[in-house]
Design goal:
Helices cover 38% and strands 20% of the residues. It is of the alpha+beta class. Strand 11 (214-221) and strand 12 form a beta hairpin. It starts with a helix and ends with a helix.
Length: 351
């Protein structure tokens, strides 16, 4: 009987550990700079440079005469997304790796600069908070501008990711040469990019996603055809000029005109969408939960639950309801945790 009771107690401890366990956020991150050097800094110090470099302090929509400060809630959303991305990379590479991220767009842009006060506030007020899905750190991708709809990763890269679903982006601000854009290539330019095709005859859009982004593009030449897939289309044509996979195509003589929407890969959070949501009064957790499906925000959610408990207690007192809620399982767990098990076991042996 004693052995059975002790076994049940051990099982309870293991069960309790799994319920209350949390992901440990690393304190430091190692960055490979553009010159090849490795810089190790505290995680939030790193985020000061990332948030200011990635989202900036000010924004200017197409219909504005002058720029205005980026809403604090948008900066907070960027801070939590960037922290989550960084922690994901640290855990994936391992703390003993030579470096965890680069300082350029192959990871997220980092510059060792003195942050503006709003940047510092956004990072400090969300310190320790990361996005999780199914108890794992989320790889919180983000990009510049969606053009009205984000994209699922299987239509950009390869694998489907549950928390990175395509969503409508109705609050996004319109930004010149990002919300809509035009890119023109001459036949000669395209033939130089793809010399194996010979003389260019035509370019055909073969398949698009539900949002309208091009998944398969075929370049027809006199010697061979060239098929480009997903994000490889932008890479082949130059991602700074062909700004997204969302485009229509027309030929005008020797010119091939791509008329498109959005800027970037389109997966995860739109930065100009986050700014728009901040302008409309959305909080940063609402922004994150709009772009990342069925996620939790570790740190924020715990804080919110603590505040909710305090508010609920105050409401009961104001309403004259001071009856304690019966929690038999919790009471039993607390009693077990508060028991001196060494003394109890000795007494049982002697008794």
């Amino acid at each position: 009987m004693k052995k059975l009771f002790f076994s049940i107690f051990c099982i309870m401890l293991v069960w309790g550990g799994s319920v209350f366990a949390s992901i440990e956020v690393p304190e430091y991150i190692k960055i490979k700079m553009n010159d090849g050097s490795i810089l190790e800094v505290e995680l939030d110090e790193y985020l000061y440079g990332v948030v200011q470099s990635e989202m900036g302090v000010n924004y200017k929509a197409e219909d504005m005469d002058a720029s205005e400060p980026v809403p604090l809630e948008a900066l907070k959303a960027q801070a939590v997304a960037s922290r989550s991305y960084a922690v994901y990379k640290i855990l994936k590479a391992g703390e003993d790796a030579d470096y965890h991220v680069t300082s350029n767009t192959s990871s997220q842009v980092y510059k060792d600069i003195e942050p503006a006060e709003s940047i510092r506030q956004a990072v400090d007020e969300t310190s320790g908070q990361i996005i999780t899905y199914d108890d794992d750190v989320a790889c919180a991708y983000f990009f510049s501008t969606s053009g009205g709809h984000t994209e699922s990763p299987e239509n950009v890269w390869s694998s489907e990711v549950d928390y990175l679903q395509a969503v409508e982006d109705p609050y996004e601000i319109e930004v010149k040469n990002k919300t809509t854009w035009t890119a023109t290539y001459t036949a000669n330019e395209i033939e130089k990019k793809f010399p194996e095709i010979g003389k260019l005859e035509e370019i055909q859009i073969i398949e698009t996603s539900e949002s309208g982004r091009v998944i398969e593009l075929e370049i027809v030449g006199s010697k061979a055809n060239k098929t480009l897939l997903k994000n490889g289309i932008r890479t082949a044509f130059g991602s700074n000029k062909l700004r997204s996979q969302w485009f229509e195509l027309e030929q005008d003589g020797d010119n091939y005109i791509f008329t498109g929407r959005g800027y970037g890969h389109g997966v995860g959070m739109s930065q100009n969408g986050a700014i728009g949501m901040g302008i409309y009064g959305f909080s940063y957790d609402e922004i994150l939960k709009w772009y990342y499906t069925d996620i939790e925000i570790l740190g924020y959610d715990e804080k919110y639950e603590d505040e909710k408990i305090i508010i609920d207690d105050e409401d009961r007192e104001e309403n004259g309801d001071t009856n304690e809620v019966e929690t038999p399982l919790l009471d039993e767990l607390l009693a077990i945790c508060n028991t001196n098990w060494v003394l109890y076991y000795v007494q049982e042996i002697n008794g």
